[in-house]
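Re: Re: ligand-bound prediction request (bumping)

Still looking for help on this. To restate: I need the protein modeled with pantoate bound, output as structure tokens. Inputs repeated here so nobody has to scroll up.
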Amino acid sequence: MEIITDVKTMRQKVAEARHDGKTVGLVPTMGYLHEGHLALIDAARTQTDVVVVSDFVNPMQFGPTEDYQVYPRDLDHDAKLCEEHGVEYVFAPTVEQMYPKDSRQVDVFVDVRNLDNNLCGRFRPGHFRGVVTVVSKLFNIVRPDKAFFGMKDIQQLRIIEEMVRDLNMDIDIVPVPTVREPSGLALSSRNTYLTKEEHEKAAAIYKSLQMAKQLIEEKGIRSVSEIVKACSTYLAEKGFKVQYFQIVDYDTLQLMQETKGKIIIATAVFLGKVRLIDNLVMEVQ
Ligand code: PAF
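Reply:
Sorry for the wait, this slipped through. Here it is.
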């Protein structure tokens, strides 16, 4: 396994793989790998010949008051895990390689509309512009046949699926289910910020989503406001500051009044200063 830190070498390596008739799988990450990332890598391993894991904390997707500077980083540990999981290349470029101009000064970028009106997009202005811009850059550098994204970041996944369709990118986007702790807590690099007590408490996030599912399936409730109120109250009573608890249409990511068809139930909460997100996808008859 090789760690590559510059764009030119990365391009050469994938060009060689393609020349040998091999398919390329890309797992875009911001590093600090955990079991959730390893599930993406394992999926890539089984579906493509050469696996590239990008390991880059992308400044463009962090707001001015967000945790870019302190975001956890550990390239040695990431490289070890990648090696154990059969990855060929870890692409860990410097910020200067990815953004020869300052990342806040770029003149040309990819942007999103409508799909980022709700959920995280509503509270993180410019976040998805940063995500789709860096993902496009990674796609242009690695030119993967398939790229693997976790369902935990469901809005990101849906936006990237739409980007690939709208911009005619010849890449299969492969969604990979969220990996959870036995308590139900979704794995996230940000879980490392939690104290032991907060970590235990955080299991209530997934419970709130299951509660919404039960209200729909078992109690037959269709009113979104009723479901959102019950689940937000539950989370607030457990000590979370709820940034949002929303139910949106899976395809359009727009809010709905009545649950119908394929929906996303999603929440973002603060436990102290730590922001955690989770979601559940379901089909309502
Ligand atoms: O999901 C992430 O870790 C990031 O948003 C991504 C897709 C690697 C882009 O920086």
